[in-house]
Request: fold
Amino acid sequence: MSRSEVNLIHRVEVVETQRLTDGMLRVVFGGAGLDGFVSSGTGDEYLRLFLPERGHDEPRLPVPVGDASWEFPTGVEPCEMRTYTVRAWNGSAGRLTIDFVVHEGGIAAAWALGARPGHVAGVNTPRGLYAPPSGIAWQLLVADATGLPAALRLAEQAPAGVRTRVVLEVAGPWDEQRIELPPHVELTWVHGGNGNGPTRIEEIVRASEFPAGPGYVWVAGETRATRGVRRFLRHELRLPPTAYKVVGYWTENAELWAERYDALPDAVRARLRDMWSEDRDAEELEDEYEETLAAHGL
Ligand SMILES: Cc1cc2nc3c(=O)[nH]c(=O)nc-3n(C[C@H](O)[C@H](O)[C@H](O)COP(=O)(O)OP(=O)(O)OC[C@H]3O[C@@H](n4cnc5c(N)ncnc54)[C@H](O)[C@@H]3O)c2cc1C
Reply:
């Protein structure tokens, strides 16, 4: 069966948890519900994690629709859901590993902190975003703590012959992970950001060496920081869209952001919602979306 034909929702059970660092908690899932789980194998593949309501054991799960989507049946109120990376998938053991950033005020972060063997959640079929052109000679992977699970998995899988530089921004030395990486991967830790201070993600990318020859830049972090990174790569370095993937993984002060978004004039919100159905270049649409948000202080 090809990857595109697989679109499933899985009920998963916590098998074990492990505190990796002060700021990161690992949860390993298993259970019969993972039968048929298909990993794309892409290092940054992500999924939706469906969570039970506080005080309830089971999450209300959606049902798959078509090749790639899902929905909650009529009359079923959607459960809380968040996006997470598949840090590891062990198909023979039926084990799915997700690494959670531990932070204040998060529904998923709080759920992970309280997770115990036997606790139940749901996940959908994951998909990846990392898609370098063939024949690259180098790659640059930059992320904050939310992108760390994806960046490390990408680094572990970095093809021999592709010079790989990884820069990870974590809150402090206490959040650095000891990890074995292939010899052609160079890993640098920097400290800050992650909701505890200004992030240096954009500065890191701007100061990075872009070796000659075909390469790829992959960046994940806070959305306003990644916006600056994308602008730099696309509009200052003028890289083609195939040469980079820049993804906003979380929004600092998300509640304030949502409040401001809701207060935008109706016409602006309608434009931001409807523009995606236009038959235009995806990167141009992204430019307009980002510029509109920035112009409104979002
Ligand atoms: C493709 C993709 C892959 C991702 N993979 C991972 C992953 O593997 N591990 C991971 O931990 N996260 C990952 N994230 C980010 C994660 O989805 C968000 O951080 C999410 O908001 C966490 O949900 P929550 O319920 O804990 O917090 P929310 O309820 O969404 O937010 C509550 C408050 O916490 C703040 N907040 C949210 N995230 C953080 C944070 N990381 N640090 C500080 N404050 C925060 C918000 O601004 C808000 O004020 C990924 C995101 C994407 C888009």
Q: What stands out?
A: The mean pLDDT is 96.
